[in-house]
Amino acid sequence: MLAGLREVLDPAVDAGTGVGAFNIICLEHAEAVIWGAEAADVPVVLQVSENAVLYHRSLEPILIATVALARNADVPAVVHLDHVTDPDLVRAGVELGATSVMFDGSRRSYEENVAVTADVVRYCHARNVQVEAELGEVGGKDGVHSSTARTRPDDATAFVDDTEVDALAVAVGSSHAMTERTTKLDLELVGRLRDAVDVPLVLHGSSGVPDDELVRAISAGLTKINIGTHLNATLTRGVRHQLEDQPRLVDPRKYLGPARDDVATEVERLLRLLSKAT
Ligand code: G3H
Ligand code: ZN
User: Fold this and answer.
1) d(CA 177, CA 57)
2) Needs which cofactor (predicted)?
3) In this structure, what are the phi and psi dihedrals at residue 46, rounded to the nearest 5 degrees?
4) What pLDDT, in 10s, does the model give residues 101-131?
5) ipTM value greater than 0.85
6) Which of 204, 34, 68 is nearest to 134 (CA)?
7) pLDDT for 144-167, tens place per residue?
8) 109 C-alpha to center of ligand 1: Å?
């Protein structure tokens, strides 16, 4: 069933567990994420990024399909717009049924980020949609890896108070689009951020973070765990194996289907890990 962001994050905060949030690029991702969540029997977040929308050249088909899959799911499923920098895209996504939005003003000045994010929050809250925002830019979105950015707890307190966001993405040592799972997080900072703000904290760039470090990060106070690249690697590895084994294949269902099953299995495994972490 289609769920709101805080509906799935608040119980996890209370339980000291995590919620997996997976990036959706194509229909097979969305199906695999729902199937994995149903197998693990836990809530999940499906997130469609502004970059995925640019890839499709349109928001409607991928978002409407994702909303339909979430509505039909046996578990609570949030449909979230990810890393949106254009407020017009927020409005379009909310009209199409997204229940949650990450507005990314992290490349703006602090003052501008506060002003634009607060506007987005007013628009979304009037429509019962929740908003995540980012403070302290998590690097790697442009292919340049930097894990040195840090969110200052005092800034986080002020930002949440000034914008009234429902969840906060923080920079604590991760970087986007990592293909090696070698990241060490600043867990001491996670604890101080947890004490400084009263909304759930979000980890971006979680593909580079090994399983045991994800568990420690949740114990330290992170709740929403965003994973994109790792699932892409799983899907692509599956397709590659199928095509290498059967070079004469032409029906995409024959190589996408098994790769989609691999993604569902990995989503199930990750959700079991995140939802049991304490
Ligand atoms: O917003 C999306 C996430 O931060 C995913 O990052 O592709 O590095 O796992 P990742
Ligand atoms: Zn991200």
Assistant:
1) 22
2) Zn(2+)
3) -105, 125
4) 999 998 899 999 999 999 999 999 999 999 9
5) yes
6) 204
7) 677 889 999 999 999 999 999 999
8) 22
Question: Tokens 């507005």, residue?
Answer: 103
The residue contributing the CA closest to ligand 1 atom 4 is: 204
Spatial distance between the Cα atoms of 235 and 229, rounded to a whole number of angstroms: 10
Pairing between β-strand 100-103 and β-strand 201-203 as defined by DSSP bridges: unpaired
Ligand 1 mutation pick, 207, 214, 263, 270, max ligand atoms within 8 A of CB: 207
- Active-site pick, 10, 41, 74, 82: 82
Residue 48 near ligand 1, beta carbon < 6 Å? no
| Residue ranges of domains in the chain, CATH in brackets | 2-276 (3.20.20.70)
Is the minimum distance from the CB of 145 to ligand 1 under 6 angstroms? no
**CB of 36 sitting under 6 A from ligand 1:** no
- Calculate the CA 139 to chain-centre distance: 15
